[in-house]
Amino acid sequence: MTSATQERLDQGARPTEATAMEQIRTTIREFIANSLSWDLHDDEDLFALGFVKSLFILQLILFIEREFDLTIENVHSTIESFRTVNRIAQLVERETGLLYRSCQ
Questions:
Q1: Which parts of 39-97 fold into alpha helices (H)?
Q2: pTM score, two decimals?
């Protein structure tokens, strides 16, 4: 996890599960907004909006892996997890247990 993400999680008292998930979503939203110049809502479908090109999906996967210190093993089986900000955040939580660790 990058220091910026860890700093968000470390600020103040221990975050609740909802706060931790919102911090994950914010990090993902900021990357997408900077990459696509589009303010994406958490349930907007990147595929349906036409944003998913092979180069962008690779950039997004690399960002998620670096930002949250995880490895996405089989991209083809998890590609549906990259449709929306909410699905990406759920993937991060599932793969890292980030919400569990941040709420302890």
A1: 54-68, 75-78, 85-96
A2: 0.76
Question: What does the pLDDT look like over 53-63, one tens digit per residue?
Answer: 888 989 999 99
Q: How far apart are CA 24 and CA 86, in angstroms?
A: 9
Cα distance between residue 101 and residue 45, in whole Å: 29
Q: How many CB atoms lie within 10 A of CB 101?
A: 11
Using CA atoms, how far apart are residues 92 and 94, in angstroms rounded to an integer? 5
Domains by residue range for the chain, with CATH: 3-102 (1.10.1200.10)
CB 98 within 8 A of CB 69: no
Number of H helices, E strands in the chain: 6, 0
Report how far residue 50's alpha carbon sits from residue 30's, in angstroms, rounded to the nearest whole number.
Answer: 18
Task: Please give the DSSP secondary-structure letter assigned to residue 82.
Answer: G
